[in-house]
Here is the input.
Amino acid sequence: MRLKSRHLLGLEGVSRQDIELIFNTAVTFKEILSRDIPKVPTLRGLTIANLFYEPSTRTRFSFELAEKRLSADTVSFSTNSSSVQKGETLKDTVQNIEAMKVDMVVIRHQAAGAPHFLARCCNTKVINAGDGAHEHPTQALLDLFTVWEKYKKIDGLRVVIVGDIKYSRVARSDIWGFKTMGAEVAICGPTTLLPYEVERMGVEVYTRLETALEGRDIVIVLRIQAERQQAGLLPTIREYVNRFCLTPRHLAALKENFTIMHPGPINRGVEISPEVADGPYSVILSQVTNGVAIRMAVLYLLSGGRLPNSRRKAKAS
Here is the structure.
């Protein structure tokens, strides 16, 4: 009941077997979350540090809640109230935390590769909660799990990711994850927001939304990462809305029983209309719910603990 890797730094290279193990473990923890007392002593005695160098709502709360549900001791770090303001480096921060006998570090950082750097310079287990425009593995895992829960499979599904692909860490992790699980993946967005030579990741590339949506099962809509973009990549937000905002008129192109997803936060009326975000095919809130179970599963599997008793088992496909 352990992952092959000691850390979770990204989904590139993570095996289908490990992803299925995370799914099966998350099913157990999701059942625990529905109990009257949704807490188990699985990680009692372990200490986890949450280092968030960037703002976060869903990811940070989800990790903190997952840790508390597993009875771990937690410490949370914010750059605004830490020695980072005095010039302390990332390496020094983590090595000092490690010296306090912390067992695991969850890190979000604006620099791509920061979690990989930590994994090389310290002995603590590291979980990537988002590094720059590189990867966000637990978000992709909860996206995959949400789809797997609904369709009972991922093999053969047709997925399209729409929006700011170039600066999205979610897009990269979703591409690696969905392809590993056998889905057909396409991306769509303005030419200026598509990564250079992205075709090498094995995806179809579109710059016209109506064409990209034809026959798709899953639409993952992304936020424009304005905080990472350089100026001039979009003429105006109005033009982006006219060409790429997902509205009810687009839904007829999709397959029957399609699914609309978004990692959040949502900019309503920019990348997705309120009618679609709140519509019957949206699983956006289910993604948030599943995020706690997935992160509980990842924390548990990296800790090497024993799985709590469960009345249900899952068979991933």
